Amino acid sequence: MNILYVTPMWSGLKDILIDGKEEAGGMPAFINPLKKLIEGGNQVDLLIGTDSYKQDLNIKASWLKNSKIKLLKWDLSSNKLLTFIRTYYEIKKRIKEKQYDFIYSHGSFGVLGVLVAQSLGIPNGQRMYGTFLHKKINDPNYKIFLKHPLEFLSYRINKSFLIMTNDGTKGDIVYKKIAKKSNDKFYFWLNGVKQSYSNNADSNLQSEYLIYPARITPWKRQHLALEVLKKLHIKGYTNIKLIFLGHISDLNYRDKLIEIAKENNLIESVVIKSSINQSELYTHYKESLAVLSFYELSNLGNVVIESLINGGVTIAWNDGSLNEVITNEVNGFLIDNEDEASEILEKIIKKEIDINLVKKNAKKKAKTTFSSWDERALKEIEIIYKECKLSRE
């Protein structure tokens, strides 16, 4: 089949298209189904909206060698309406150049691909990866549309299907609020997980560092981890270090984190590592003192899932998103503030908590809760194939 992806430039996608990496460092929910589709013999092309549209492609991932990839100008710093219109017609022009069997649109940007596909009568679906709209759930629809037009339309417009990640941001509730009643093919799925890499890692290793795997951006709230580190150092545990692992999405926030670290004499104990391969990350899950996740909206994401499957000691913000995944003090820890986090870490350091039991319980729970990425990706692909078959009948 000929399939066209209409998508923004996710951080993991940038890794393999622009930065010349053979392996994406993020967004497995996007990368894994894409790779499986291509490996299944489909021709998959990509139209990618990005403000870095003038950058040259640098592709070393062999599985992408036959895909036609086009970067589209996507700059919302000027007139948004004109940008929407211009991009719509650019997508339409590109789609008309080739006969596609299916248009697969991603993120709220992708709804422009949905609109084009609908106008041309091409089967299409959309994939969303979480939402910020739950905070607006009590607003009338017209207000939501005016403030967030593309995301509103992503829920509102009919299409073959909409797949939404169940990441704790309550996308199912947002969908019920906005969608038309005729939009009945809505799938609300947990992310998958890749099985542990370094199975021989010593679970008894008492490492002296914390990790915070996440893109550097304000809503990921890395500054709270600095506060926890500060409290540990005040208690006398000055040997403990903190490693931030993730793409730098917001340079100003990165600079703010460095400033906070300097002000609190923590700079020698803080590392920011923006590039890391998956096997190294999985080793850190196993060997670090703890994996911290203090996101603002939801913590039911890849970090917690991967930490659990690897037997990491997970300390996450108690926002309600992990109630079905983590039982406090059994397979991880749920905290309401930085003081609680530092107190738990002190108990771990003093060996007052049976960490090996927590690690064992974490892996056991993850294996019974989450599908493998192979299973999860194939499930998504089956829906695409099904919709294409229905369109031909």
How would you describe the overall organization of this protein?
The protein has 393 residues and is of the alpha/beta class. The chain has two domains: 2-192 and 372-392, Rossmann fold, CATH 3.40.50; 209-369, Rossmann fold (3-Layer(aba) Sandwich). Helix content is 41%, strand content 16%. The protein has helices spanning 11-17, 28-39, 80-96, 111-120, 141-147, 149-156, 171-178, 222-234, 251-263, 278-287, 302-309, 338-349, 355-369, 373-392, and strands spanning 2-8, 43-50, 69-73, 102-106, 124-128, 162-165, 186-189, 209-213, 241-245, 270-273, 290-293, 314-317, 333-335. The strands form two sheets. Strands 3-2-1-4-5-6-7 form a seven-stranded parallel sheet, with helices on both faces. Strand 6 (162-165), helix 7 (171-178) and strand 7 form a beta-alpha-beta unit. It is globular, with a radius of gyration of 22 Å. The chain starts with a strand and ends with a helix. GO terms for molecular function: glycosyltransferase activity. Keywords: Transferase. It comes from Psychrobacillus lasiicapitis.
Cα-to-Cα separation, first versus last residue: 16 Å
CATH superfamily of the largest domain: Glycogen Phosphorylase B
Question: Average pLDDT across residues?
Answer: 92
Strand count, sense and closure of the main sheet?
7 strands, parallel
Reading the helices and strands in chain order gives EHHEEHEHEHHEHEEHEHEHEHEEHHH
- Portion of residues in beta strands equals 15-25%
In angstroms, what is the radius of gyration? 22 Å
CATH topology title of the largest domain: Rossmann fold
